[in-house]
Specification:
The complex is a heterodimer of chains A (399) and B (325).
Chain A: H1 7-25, E1 52-57, E2 62-67, E3 76-95, E4 101-118, H2 122-127, H3 136-140, E5 145-152, E6 157-166, H4 183-219, H5 221-236, H6 239-250, H7 254-263, H8 267-281, H9 284-291, H10 296-332, H11 343-352, H12 355-358, H13 365-389, H14 391-398
Antiparallel strand pairs in A: 1-6, 2-5, 3-4, 3-5, 3-6
Helix pairs in contact in A: 1-4, 1-13, 4-5, 4-7, 4-8, 4-10, 4-13, 5-8, 6-7, 8-10, 10-11, 10-13, 11-13, 13-14
Chain B: H1 2-26, H2 34-38, H3 45-54, H4 61-73, H5 87-122, H6 127-141, H7 144-158, H8 176-214, H9 217-224, H10 229-266, H11 272-281, H12 285-313, H13 315-318
Helix pairs in contact in B: 1-4, 1-12, 5-6, 5-8, 5-10, 5-12, 6-8, 7-8, 7-10, 8-10, 9-10, 10-11, 10-12, 11-12
Classes of the chains: A alpha+beta (399), B mainly alpha (325).
């Protein structure tokens, strides 16, 4: 109940919901380009055009585009015009405020004009009379003012559905990355990976640590000494290089990562559980159980495990940040599956693809703050659980 | 006294052995063997067998291990797959950078953390104590590389005081003094970031220890005797908390080395960590194994050094009484 009064448990709930339901809001593929690379977030002040769309419809086969910015990064036009009968020539025209007119698309001797144009297509540039190295968007937007896109002829249109898409240099809540992907979408997808890796790896470590700690603490003697020596040794070897080597050798999949993190972070739990077991082993009730002939496994399962459980839960919660940080660190070093979007991966790409030469802070702050927030949440939950399992801590803290 | 040193050295040797084992078996979990990476698949089976014999791969595993361990301990790491140069040459040029980064960051954060921790304990509830508590929780939860990236963005791009990458300018400046200051200029931000991330947990730990110590009876007695505050603080309280501080010194080391690997990557430093990463990404197994071994060796060596210091500061060991865990 104490837990329900903490901010952290509610924050965890909110983050989990955001991570599971959030990406569902987006209809598109997270890998798709939505705007120009390194587009700033839409709410930031300063230059850069927003994304724009214009439609030609059956009722209104012309559209106005008022333009007040630098030329856009690209232009795409897609859709079709269908006429009642066969026409000698049908066209989609683009007129600039200066009075120049470009033919964007044309057809001959058909009743339907289909368009699927990307401003980067060579054939499109040729049809505008540009060289393949020219920028079509620059040619189509030579100045500020009101542009017109229109179908010709306008008579006899049975159906028109043409979309003019101008990707912006500003996009969404958090802008875009070096490939023009929506950073906010990636950010939401990253929540899942962090939570999944953090929690499963720590649970795996907790199970190993519990097993080792219980058996070493209860058995005592040589076995205990040997196991604890192994723990000491593993604790004195830097983990990250081992994890790097393992990730490099065993492949970079998500589950390999969870496994690797799990088998190298159980030492702390094992120590705690062992210490508890050592003290419990000597208590009267355990001795009584032994004298009554209770099997060792029964004592461990029915009496020591429940005693160790609250402490174990606190340990798990406190261990999650370490696992999340380790996952993020490995991804940042490029040792994770490049197909899986995670916060560490986002930071790696920001670092590797020139977020620093462009000053793209929106690529660095969101994932980093996200990681820190999740870690703080689990730290708080862990401390609360620890206090609940050991009321002495609370007194000491209050003192 | 002697048994203490003997035990510590023996412990270090055991860790070394475990590292060698890990290294040996991890890289043998790979599909294929050393030979299959350097020979042409069209070689005849006899030629392959001959090569395997030359590399000693036909001898029993334990013999291979001993040969491997001997090679590792004598720093005979073989040739890198990527550069075809001896791995040790490559590593030797990088080791000073890593040791400088590690050593200076570790010492500075330990000194700063201890000093702040002691003063936070002396003035409970003060502004200083709040800073210490905040810094501690930040260093627990913020990914180190994120803080470093933000620092890089702030002081490398927005306010270009420090270089964005590298450990020396290209081309390096003429003259020893100029080169030295150029090196310091490049290392400032990495070391500063590690200190920033490191001192918080130190300070919290020292504060907690000192709070407990300052509340004990013998401190009260020392004060009652009318000893000057400075003497009470440093001569009595700090003196008794020194051994546990050194213990945490031991426990913090592996984490610091892990942090150094990432730091080198963020600031593109010419160090052992970046070498390890490049070797892993390039499937250069001899180089990766050697870099890992070297990092582990640095950790073992520092551990042993810390043990020596522990022995010097703990009177129970100095006078030769047996130590209890």
């Amino acid at each position: 109940m104490t837990l329900l009064r903490r901010w952290s448990i509610w924050a965890l709930l909110a983050v989990t919901l955001l991570g599971t339901l959030g990406p569902g809001v987006f209809t598109g593929d997270p890998e798709a380009q939505v705007a120009a690379p390194f587009s700033r977030p839409a709410w930031t002040p300063g230059g850069g055009s927003p994304p724009l769309t214009a439609f030609l419809t059956t009722e209104k086969p012309a559209a106005l585009v008022s333009w007040r910015w630098e030329p856009p990064p690209n232009v795409t036009i897609s859709g079709f015009l269908r006429y009642a009968g066969q026409l000698e020539r049908a066209e989609i025209l683009w007129s600039t405020p200066g009075g120049k007119t470009f033919v964007l698309a044309s057809s001959k001797d058909t009743d339907t004009l289909r368009v699927d144009i990307d401003g980067r297509d060579m054939s499109f540039k040729r049809s505008l009379g540009l060289s393949p190295f020219d920028d079509a968007a620059k040619a189509l937007f030579p100045e500020k003012g009101t542009y017109t896109i229109a179908a010709r002829p306008t008579d006899g249109i049975k159906e028109a559905r043409v979309t003019l898409d101008i990707p912006g240099k500003k996009w969404g809540l958090l802008g875009t990355d070096q490939r023009g992907r929506d950073v906010f979408h990636l950010f939401l997808l990253g929540i899942r990976v962090s939570l999944l890796v953090g929690i499963t790896a720590t649970l795996l470590a907790a199970v190993i640590g519990l097993g080792v700690g219980l058996s070493a603490g209860y058995a005592g003697g040589l076995f205990d000494a040997l196991v604890m020596r192994v723990v000491d040794i593993l604790l004195s070897i830097p983990t990250l290089p081992i994890l790097m080597v393992l990730a490099g050798l065993w492949g970079k999949g998500l589950w390999q990562l969870v496994f690797i993190l799990g088998i190298f972070s159980w030492m702390g739990t094992a120590r705690t559980v062992r210490a508890l077991t050592l003290s419990l082993r000597e208590t009267c009730y355990v001795e009584n159980l032994r004298s009554l002939g209770a099997p060792t496994f029964y004592i461990l399962r029915r009496h020591l495990l429940p005693e160790a459980f609250p402490l174990l839960m606190a340990n798990v919660a406190l261990g999650v940040p370490a696992a999340i940080l380790a996952e993020a660190g490995l991804s940042f070093l490029g040792l994770s599956d490049p197909r899986i979007i995670s916060w560490g991966r986002m930071l790696q790409e920001a670092h590797g693809f020139g977020a620093f030469s462009t000053g793209a802070w929106w690529l660095i702050l969101p994932p980093g703050i996200g990681i820190a927030l999740i870690c703080l949440i689990f730290l708080d939950i862990g401390r609360t659980l620890e206090e609940m399992s050991d009321p002495r801590l609370k007194k000491e803290m209050a003192r | 006294m002697r048994s203490y040193w003997l035990k510590r050295v023996l412990g270090a040797l055991i860790v070394l052995l475990v590292v060698l084992f890990l290294n040996f078996f991890l890289f043998r979990l790979m599909p294929g063997d050393v030979v299959s990476t350097i020979i042409d698949p069209r070689f005849s089976p006899e030629a392959k067998a001959e090569l395997r014999k030359q590399f000693g791969l036909d001898s029993p595993l334990y013999e291979q291990f001993f040969r491997y361990a001997k090679a590792m301990v004598t720093f005979d790491f073989g040739l890198s797959f990527l550069s075809q140069r001896p791995v040790w040459e490559e590593l030797r040029s990088r080791l000073p950078n890593t040791v400088f980064l590690l050593g200076s960051a570790f010492l500075l954060s330990a000194i700063l953390g201890t000093w702040l921790g002691i003063h936070a304990a002396r003035r409970r509830g003060s502004f200083l104590e709040k800073i210490v508590l905040l810094a501690g929780s930040v260093s627990f939860s913020f990914p180190s590389f994120f803080v470093q990236l933000v620092l890089l963005l702030a002081f490398g791009w927005a306010l270009p005081l420090f270089p964005l990458r590298g450990s020396v300018s290209i081309p390096p400046p003429e003259g020893f003094a100029a080169a030295f200051f150029d090196y310091l200029w490049h290392m400032t931000l990495p070391v500063f970031s590690l200190v920033l991330l490191g001192f918080g947990s130190w300070a919290i730990y020292v504060r907690n220890l000192m709070v407990r110590t300052l509340g004990s009876d013998y401190i009260l007695l020392a004060r009652a005797k009318g000893l000057p505050e400075r003497r009470v603080l440093w001569g009595h309280a700090f003196r008794t908390t020194l051994p546990p501080i050194v213990t945490i010194f031991l426990l913090a080391l592996p984490g610091v080395i892990s942090g150094a690997v990432i730091t080198e990557r963020v600031f593109s430093l010419h160090g052992v960590g970046t070498f390890l990463l490049e070797a892993i990404l390039g499937h250069d197994y001899p180089a990766a194994g050697a870099a890992f071994f070297l990092l582990a060796l640095v950790s073992i060596f520092c551990n042993l050094a810390a043990d020596v210091i522990y022995g010097l500061v703990d009177p129970r060991i100095r006078v030769g009484r047996s130590m209890e865990e």
